[in-house]
Amino acid sequence: MKCTDLYRRLTDHAEGLLDKGDCAAIDKHLRECSPCGELRRDLEALARLCRESSRPRMPEGVRRRIETLLRESA
Amino acid sequence: MEGPVAAADREALSHALVEHGDRLYALALRVSRDPDLAGDAVQEAFATALQRIADFRGESSLGTWLHRIVYNKAIDLLRHRGRLSPLPDEESGAAPADDRLAQVPAWSRPPDQILYGEETRRALDEALVHLTPQQRAVFTLREMEGLATDEVASMLELEPGAVRVHLHRARLRLRSLLGEHFKGGMVAS
């Protein structure tokens, strides 16, 4: 497997969409190719950062305007 | 508004505002990068939902339907305000560009030393500016909200395969953009 083949299949691999043979080939490449291993490591770190990020909250003014809209639709 | 909305429909939308309000606003904000526009997009989305809820057939959940309306409103408002400029390689299907992005130097800060502090939050926020609105929407819903690919596809009216392509490109671009932030043994600010 070439590095470019791996780039294009990494997301499918992470989502469990590949068959057993393809998964084994990707896992082998990740073990043996340092830059690709680092790519996966960075993407996993990015995913973790995103999971830890806080979601912005809807401002109260916007919420009140929508509540008014809903009330006045009666 | 064409006429009074049935009490049950109003109740359902009021409940959806409580349950999904912050997530809807976050989607609009991350797509538009503009708090005022995001507020307008969510408000207009609820106005549209009030008009159309009688036709809502429940083929998706109410939350999914509202996300779809909010996303479309945010894109429409960006377009009307002349702020929907595609990045050079947007939608070009440019696999070679993806390959080049995948080959940028790795973050040299070990993942277990990466903490989600204020500096990192700001760096991630600034990096998101460089994604297309569609990539931001996919990345927000899939990676930041943790929703399933099929659900994101339904919200954005995309095929699941297209969601995965946008997600892949967004991840590679963010990894490249955040390289400066995570270089060396300390967070570069």
Keyword list:
heterodimer, A: 74 residues, mainly alpha, 4 helices, 77% helix, elongated, B: 189 residues, Rna Polymerase Sigma Factor, Chain: A, Arc Repressor Mutant, subunit A, 2 domains, 0% strand, disordered C terminus
**Quaternary form:** heterodimer
- Output the number of helix runs of chain B: 8
Task: Name the pair of protein chains with the most residues at their interface, and give those residue counts.
Answer: A-B, 39 and 50 residues
Q: How much is the average pLDDT of chain B? A: 84
Mean pLDDT level of chain A:
89
Strand residues, percent of chain A: under 5%
Note the gap between the termini of chain B. Answer: 50 Å
CATH topology label of the largest domain in chain B: Arc Repressor Mutant, subunit A
How many domains make up the 3D coordinates of chain B?
A: 2
The SSE order of chain A reads: HHHH
Q: What profile does the largest beta sheet of chain A have? A: none
- CATH architecture field of the largest domain in chain B: Orthogonal Bundle
In short:
Chain A is mainly alpha-helical and 74 residues long. Chain A is 77% helix and 0% strand.
Structural commentary:
- The complex is a heterodimer of chains A (74) and B (189).
- Chain A is mainly α and 74 residues long.
- Chain A has helices at residues 3-14, 20-32, 34-52, 60-72.
- The longest helix of chain A is centred in the middle third of the chain and has 19 residues, at 34-52.
- Chain A is elongated and about 60 Å long.
- Chain A starts with a helix and ends with a helix.
- The model of chain A has no long low-confidence stretch (mean pLDDT 89).
- Chain B is an all-alpha fold and 189 residues long.
- Chain B has two domains: 7-80, Rna Polymerase Sigma Factor, Chain: A; 95-177, Winged helix-like DNA-binding domain superfamily/Winged helix DNA-binding domain (Arc Repressor Mutant, subunit A, Orthogonal Bundle), CATH 1.10.10.
- Chain B is 63% helix and 0% strand.
- Chain B has helices spanning 7-32, 35-52, 62-80, 95-102, 118-128, 133-144, 149-156, 160-177.
- In chain B, α1 crosses α3 (62-80), α3 (62-80) crosses α7 and α6 runs antiparallel to α7 (149-156).
- The longest helix of chain B is centred in the first third of the chain and has 26 residues, at 7-32.
- The model of chain B is unreliable at 184-189 (pLDDT under 50).
- Chain A binds chain B through residues 3-4, 7-8, 10-12, 15, 35, 38-39, 41-53, 55-59, 61-63, 65-67, 69-70, 73-74, and chain B through 1, 4-5, 7, 10, 13-14, 17, 21-26, 29-30, 35, 39, 42-43, 46-47, 50, 95, 98-99, 102-103, 106-107, 111, 114, 116, 120-121, 124, 139, 143-146, 149, 164, 167-168, 171-172, 174-175, 178.
